[in-house]
């Protein structure tokens, strides 16, 4: 009887341990991001698709000054930037380079 009670106690403890852990939000961008940046100052931009560690799409631009900024994926500026890059499907070496990261299929 004591063994059965101990096993039930261990099972409850294990269930609490597994289900009681918080998921950590590992998004690179805090907040919604900028609606626009100076296009001439962009060196590259990255499209990071939602993943288990971050449930939102992130657009990160690296400026020519090496500073990284987050863009608002819903802004017209960002959507136009993505549309143009997808249309061309090229990586520009001297102007703007595009890096697609994460999975593209859902």
UniProtKB/TrEMBL annotation:
Transmembrane segments: none
GO annotation terms (biological process): defense response; immune response
Coiled coil: none
GO cellular component terms, semicolon-separated: extracellular space
Primary location group: secreted
Chemokine interleukin-8-like domain mapped to chain residues: 24-85
Role noted for this protein: Ligand for cxcr3.2. Chemotactic for macrophages.
Similarity field: Belongs to the intercrine alpha (chemokine CxC) family.
The protein's name in its UniProt record: Chemokine (C-X-C motif) ligand 11, duplicate 5
């Amino acid at each position: 009887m004591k063994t059965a009670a101990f096993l039930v106690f261990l099972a409850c403890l294990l269930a609490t341990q597994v289900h009681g852990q918080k998921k950590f939000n590992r998004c690179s961008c805090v907040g919604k991001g900028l609606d626009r940046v100076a296009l001439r100052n962009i060196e590259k931009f990255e499209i990071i698709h939602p993943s288990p560690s971050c449930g939102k799409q992130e657009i990160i631009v690296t400026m020519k000054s090496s500073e990284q900024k987050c863009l608002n994926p819903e802004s017209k500026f960002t959507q136009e930037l993505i549309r143009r890059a997808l249309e061309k499907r090229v990586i520009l070496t001297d102007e703007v380079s595009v890096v697609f990261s994460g999975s593209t299929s859902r």
